[in-house]
Amino acid sequence: MRKFFQQLILGGFCLAIGAGTTFAENIVIKGSTTVLPIAQVTLEAYMKANPGAKISLSGGGSGEGIKALIDGSTDIANSSREIKSAEVALAKSKGVEPKEIAVAIDAIVPIVNPKNRVKDLTIDQLSQIYQGKIKNWKEVGGDDLQIVVISRDSSSGTFEAWGEMVLNKAKVTPKAQMQASNGSIVQAISKNKYAIGYIGFGYINKAVKPLTVNGVAASAKTALSKEFPVSRFLYMYTNGEPKGETAKFIKFILSSEGQKLVAKEGFVPLPADKKGKK
Questions:
Q1: Which of 88, 225, 232, 255 has its CA at 20 to 30 Å from residue 105's CA atom?
Q2: Is residue 231 within a helix (H) or strand (E), and if so which, with residue range?
């Protein structure tokens, strides 16, 4: 199922689900490929309970989702980063008031090929690897092999979060191979024993090996406590307070049933006092 879902993302996935013959409000959701599985699993459950609703869902990255919210072509913008002040200013100039709604917590996990014997890296080592300053695995306790750096592309909220939390806003090496989705990074790492990448917690599978960071393994507990140093909230943005079917859908995501689905997808559900906010 995960492989099929990743293929849909790589192919410019766009899903429209609807049932019934009655007229219903359409909900359009665009943006982050990290948030995409959460939106997918919750909208399927929501549609089952509300067969008259119609929802379309597509990826494209956090930046693209926020652009779509600003230009009015989406009702919900999925984002794995906070909206930027420049984006807020642009939105307001167009009469759009971005409303931030936290829907889950995620850990961004560095991954390598299972054949790589490195198990742990510090934040500083990760930063130097991604800046191109550490170039060989032997410098961090691995084999004498050149490191192949794989990164998300610049439209990704995960790319920006990694840049802030790991690189401290330093530039990624120009030799990095840029990928458009979590799924494509998993695929690339699984085929290259020299490579390193990073993905959302919910995308880890047996094809890759997650690394600990500063000696801490990514888990629901360590992401929630922020003990794992590369943790973040995941968001949905609307134009002002959500209304109508959109409000009902988001309320479902934040409900106990919706948050159980978040956990089932491998993400971290929000604690009771954080639902809808940080």
A1: 88
A2: strand 231-239
pLDDT band at 5, cuts 50/70/90?
A: very low
CA distance 277 to 152: 26
Residue 273: predicted pLDDT: 63
Domain count of the fold of the chain = 2
The tokens describing 39, both together, are: 């939106």
- 121 lies in the same domain as 146: yes
Euclidean distance between CA atoms 278 and 274, whole angstroms: 6
Cα gap 126→112, rounded to integer Å? 12
Q: Are 113 and 190 a contacting pair, CB within 8 Å?
A: yes
Average pLDDT of the chain to the nearest whole number = 90
Strands 54-60, 14-18: pairing kind? antiparallel
Strand partners, 205: none
Cβ-based neighbour number of residue 3 at 10 Å = 12
Ramachandran angles phi, psi of 44, nearest 5°: -65, -45
Which DSSP state fits 269?
A: P
99 and 49 in a common domain: yes
Q: Which helix (H) or strand (E) holds 71?
A: helix 62-71
Q: Do residues 82 and 218 both lie within one domain?
A: no
Q: What CA–CA distance (Å, rounded) separates 19 from 55?
A: 10
Residue 13 domain boundaries: 2-105+233-274
pLDDT tens sequence across 87-119: 999 999 999 999 999 999 999 999 999 999 999
CATH code of the domain containing 239:
3.40.190.10
- Residue 14 and residue 36 in one domain: yes
